[in-house]
Specification:
The chain is of the alpha+beta class and about 140 residues long. It has helices at about 5-35, 70-85, 110-130, and strands at about 35-40, 45-50, 55-60, 90-95, 100-110, 130-135. The protein has a four-stranded antiparallel β-sheet, covered by helices on one side. The chain has a two-stranded antiparallel sheet with strand order 1-2. It is globular, with a radius of gyration of 19 Å.
């Protein structure tokens, strides 16, 4: 086995991965500014949306299912995040009805802000009830 060049290859791979992350960040920012419109029923329903959202699923302990609604710490944090977004976005936190999972979704115009808020909420829920977070 040769290990001499593997270190260099690993460094190159890490550099490429970092560049890809930067490119993905730029693409997400561009998508956040793009408005998509769709209509149905001969124009009776029209939806406009951007791709500026962050969705994180938090797997919770099965015995913690239903406890989210009673956690005042998490409720206060949700309200604080919603207040920070104001009318320019929204925060949605809900338990799955079929599996031990809590979904955290934030929407808004500034992707960096909504990502930070979603991660803060996911961290809080994971600490209080969770096992791990899964980003979608």
């Amino acid at each position: 086995m040769r290990f001499g060049n593997n270190n260099m290859n690993m460094q190159q791979m890490m550099k490429q991965a970092q560049e890809m992350q930067k490119q993905m960040g730029k693409i997400k920012e561009e998508l956040a500014e793009t408005v998509i419109e769709a209509s149905s029923g001969g124009g009776m329903v029209t939806v406009e949306m951007t791709a500026a959202y962050e969705l994180i699923n938090i797997k919770i302990k099965p015995e913690a299912k239903g406890a989210l609604k009673d956690c005042t710490e998490t409720a206060k944090l949700i309200a604080k995040c919603a207040e920070e977004l104001g009318t320019a976005g929204r925060v949605l936190v809900r338990e799955s009805g079929t599996e031990p999972l809590v979904r955290v979704m934030t929407e808004g115009k500034d992707f960096a802000v909504i990502k930070k808020l979603a991660e803060t909420l996911a961290e809080n829920i994971s600490e209080n009830f969770g096992v791990q977070s899964v980003r979608l």
